Amino acid sequence: PPSAKGALASPGRGRREMGSFSDPRRFARLASIYQELAGAIADIEQLEERIKVLAAKPEGTPRS
């Protein structure tokens, strides 16, 4: 049997595993990660808008 060292050293092995979308569980996990990212980005964009509105207010108005 091939040694562990030889398996680690063989070129292209890791790349093939990383690029494999044939496993539906892996794909579902990636999809959920991307969904979470999209939600976080939307939250950040909303916060940026709120900050712009607050920053545009004159100093005398209460910042609530």
Compute the gyration radius: what is it? 24 Å
How many DSSP-defined strands?
A: 0
Main sheet record: none
Helix and strand pattern: HHH
Report the helical percentage.
Answer: over 70%
- How widely separated are the two ends? 69 Å
**In percent, how much strand structure appears in the residues?**
under 5%
What does this 3D model show about the protein?
- The chain is mainly α and 64 residues long.
- The chain is built from three helices and no strands.
- The mean pLDDT is 78.
- Helix content is 70%, strand content 0%.
- The chain has a domain at 27-58.
- The chain has helices at residues 4-9, 13-18, 24-56.
- The termini are far apart.
Write the layout of secondary structure elements.
Layout lengths: L3 H6 L3 H6 L5 H33 L8
Structure at a glance:
The protein has a domain at 27-58. It is 70% helix and 0% strand. It has 3 helices and no strands.
Features of this protein?
mainly alpha, single chain, 64 residues
